[in-house]
């Protein structure tokens, strides 16, 4: 593993087969007992505190030394066919550090996303390892899929245009800083009411994302269509449920908000309409 890919504000701690990469700020905040809890994550298989952040089941952690702050633990898994065979056994050791790098770039550019606190890596044998990502809980949020299922709340319907606009702007800002989200999905977009009638939009689960110098129209179009496929799949599966309706007009509103005043991005709209 190339140690230089770890930011200077992270520490590396070791205990047996476990390596803990932790943000120095939290290394100082956490008691020795709480640090040991992170080292012992692979010993604790309690599922009673499972929560969902995005599409992944996560474990919530309450640390005594952090008072009211909650941490969220997510396991790294293989997706698709390999996931059924290899499950959480990994060999590409740079994978968690790539996600850390993209998340740090996003946060530096004021893109709302996961704040990674620690990476917990367990060596198995040879190049094989398991890995857990520890992040700060994003409080009082609901993902887009859950939001669409809450169609019984008239307030959501009344604010649908505003939500669509804020989501489009958040994705556009992510693309503008060169981040391509390989799994842009309804579950990976979180909405957080601010209390003054507006919303914050968090885009999470940047595990397979990549950071480019810039993202061209083709990649932007591909990313938007990935989100659209997620929406269409949701609509098919939720056809017998009272979900908040998403119409073609809503899709046009999304694209107009995404394009904004960027006349060059009109090609994205034209390409989208041809599909």
From TrEMBL:
What Pfam families does the entry give? Kdo
The record's GO molecular-function terms, alphabetically, read: ATP binding; protein kinase activity
Q: Could you list the residue ranges forming a coiled coil in this record?
A: none
Which residue numbers delimit the Protein kinase domain? 24-275
This chain's protein is named Protein kinase domain-containing protein
What organism, scientifically named, is this protein from? marine sediment metagenome
List the taxonomic lineage.
unclassified sequences, metagenomes, ecological metagenomes
